[in-house]
Amino acid sequence: MNNDPLIIAGKAYHSRLLTGSGKYRDLDQTRDATQASGAEIVTVAIRRTNIGQNPDEPNLLDVLPPDKYTLLPNTAGCYTAEDAIRTCRLARELLDGHDLVKLEVLGDEKTLFPDVTATLEAAKILVKDGFKVMVYTNDDPIIAKRLEDIGCVAVMPLAAPIGSGLGIRNPYNILTIVENAHVPILVDAGVGTASDAAIAMELGCDGILMNTAIAAAQDPVLMASAMKKAVEAGREAFLAGRMPRKRYASASSPIDGTFF
Asked: Of the residues 3, 30, 189, 228, which has the fewest C-beta atoms closer than 10 A?
């Protein structure tokens, strides 16, 4: 919807679906799925992806050029605030001063849940250092608000554990975060299929970031297309305002004064 842009750090985007660049079969599939998704912002795991630091290896920028996509370096795989901060600074060097980053500091290797204390610490330092921080966190409304107050440009609560595909496990927490936010709220992690994406958008989320749900599908390119449509439909449904839930249907025409 061109008249309903997503605003991140002062820049307008037509697509509310953000995608990852990992876990695909090869770079060709990465390119094709990204195109099918309609995404304009694509995350890049700096510690796992070659964007020029290894000249003899395939370069992600060959299929996702920065003049076509907004690259979102992320700190995937970082388990301390120090590592996350260092990774963001490396990304800024590799991408010629690029300052929009996705911060995640993990606390557990099995679930990949965030280390909230370390995330808060890293967010404070990165914001002070001039970064525009989009931050992965749990679905705690208090922490989400605190990250906003620190100065993060977007808050990205999980819907379920990363890569689980379990869908929106606690919609009421997500709804509370959305209702109290003054920055974009994007669901990050847990979406498994198109209906999950639509539900997240119907809750009022500003967007969704996903990787595994597309890359791990049997047909990633087709799933990317499905997710694009689901995000758009969910957003339109939210803006339209759904009918109230009722136990029983009511007649669509008045019956007062009729004869039987």
From this structure: 3
Instruction: Report the C-alpha gap between 140 and 14 in whole angstroms.
Output: 28
User: Using an 8 Å Cβ cutoff, are 221 and 32 in contact?
Assistant: yes
**How much is the pLDDT for 85?**
97
Q: What is the mean pLDDT of residues 131-152?
A: 97
Please state, in angstroms and as integers, the Cα–Cα distance from residue 142 to each residue in 36, 147, 148, 184, following that order.
36, 9, 10, 16
Q: pLDDT value at position 3?
A: 84
Strand order of the β-sheet with 70-74 is: 154-157, 132-137, 100-103, 70-74, 41-45, 17-20, 207-210, 186-188
Q: What are the helix (H) ranges across the chain?
A: 27-37, 81-94, 116-128, 141-150, 171-179, 194-202, 212-215, 220-240
Residue closest to 224 by CA, chosen among 38, 60, 63: 38
How does DSSP classify residue 106? B
Predicted TM-score (pTM) of this structure: 0.91
Alpha-carbon gap, residue 32 to 20, rounded angstroms:
13
Q: Which residues are catalytic?
A: 102
Compute the average pLDDT of residues 95-122. 94
